[in-house]
Amino acid sequence: MKQSYVSMAIVALSLGISLGSCKKQEPSDLTKESVIPAPVSVTATGGYFTISKNTDIYIKGESEELRQVAQHLADRLKPATGFEMEIIQTSGEPKRGSIFFLLTGDGTNPADESYELAIGKKVMQVSAVNPAGAFRAIQTIRQLLPPEIELSTSGEGPWMVPTGVISDYPDYSYRGMMLDVARHFFSVEEVKRVIDLIAYYKLNVLHLHLTDDQGWRIEIKSWPNLTAHGGSTEVGGGEGGFFTQEQYSDIVKYAHERHITIVPEIDMPGHTNAALASYAELNCDGKARELYTGIKVGFSSLCVRKDVTYKFVDDVIRELSELTPGPYIHIGGDESHSTKTEDYLFFMEKAQEIVSKYGKSVLGWDEIATTRLAEGSVAQFWAKASNAQKAVEQGAKVLFSPAIKTYLDMQYDTTTKLGLHWAAYIEVDDAYDWDPATLVDGVGKDNILGVEAPLWTETITNIDELEYMVFPRLAGIAEIGWTPALKRDWVDYRERLAKHGERLKIMGVDFYQSDRVPWPEPDQQ
Ligand code: ACM
Questions:
Q1: CB of 205 within 8 A of CB of 452?
Q2: What digits encode the pLDDT tens for the residues 51-77?
Q3: Would you call 281 a catalytic residue per the annotation?
Q4: One of 335, 349, 427, 502 is an active-site residue; which one?
């Protein structure tokens, strides 16, 4: 006991010396930190907490998931700090200088992502109802530390965080990004990088657009030609690719460890050329289509009145449901321009029944609201406000992805080389400065499940291009999903975003440096 007091005194002394010789300013005001999404409530107490080589991470209770969250923080902090933090379970008080995680809930509301981060001079304490909230708190801690905390090799420190209390919880329960791996394929490692980046901004869903005219990207064991043939190319004629079920499960697990749900999409009955090329019997004329590598839409349709179509849909949804711990299967439903209206209605009713037979709820693009929606189906508003209204009239929730605000493949302005502009040019302030709850008459906050920003990849061929279109706009969408509307303000946000520039650079993110954001001059960073 005595010895540990002595060693603490030595630590305190050495910290004092190292702080004294440090050029960096001590942080002192928690309310002035640049956290994105902005937390709901922040109170500063004027001191600071330091993570040092003596810092360990304590957890209270037996939760294995909480231990994993604590380990995730230790792993995150190790490369930059060089510190090996131990995870120590305790029923008492943590040691001075440590980080302390505890759960306050009884696990009855797994959707609750709230947390409280109480930073004292002696202990930094995270209290959360669920491990998910503790995981969100980690992102706040990372953003309160100096940007060098994101280095993959040893940084200088000192690793100080201003003291005070943050009480935080999301405004919307669904905060997502969509990645189209059909138009251009992205590897497991690339998808994992996307998961890590969206986790930093407290998103909780990655929607994977797994099938389209140009490619089928998920192995379906009962229909192997979908990937063997349908996965063999992509827009522009590249070699495409697909996820084996094992690889896909690895992605789902990686996301789950970051408290992110994967929503898989099989787009139907249109956007199905890759399937129609793989199996002749899915076509009304019984003839397989050619593979397609262009970017037109609206020309393909499953043969809605054939029985084999529903055997196909049943097999695909069954296998996919078995790989999907999350509640939703997305069945697309957009731009089915070559499906007759009565056939579309017929198909959507049957497809929803199949999804529900496998214990899942349907997500679908806003066109599905023109059909009879099953209990629990959600319409993803991308184009037509009237469809969002139709969904609400049926008592369904709406997921907000208006193309004019959230489509990450839309160009920033007329000089952007990547992307398209059929919906709009979307500058960083356009993506941020809007409110889902007031965008569509008759669709209010209570009707809205959340927000999602899709990245379609007709023109996006690699991870650098992906990052350039996604960042920094996705951070703004994340704040819309998390921070209450009354606390959102572009002028304040752009200052915080400017400070994230250095963080993104250290993470190796090739982001768009909009001139609407006051990025610091390189020598001021
Ligand atoms: C879509 O952009 N076709 C949903």
A1: yes
A2: 999 999 999 989 999 999 999 999 999
A3: no
A4: 335
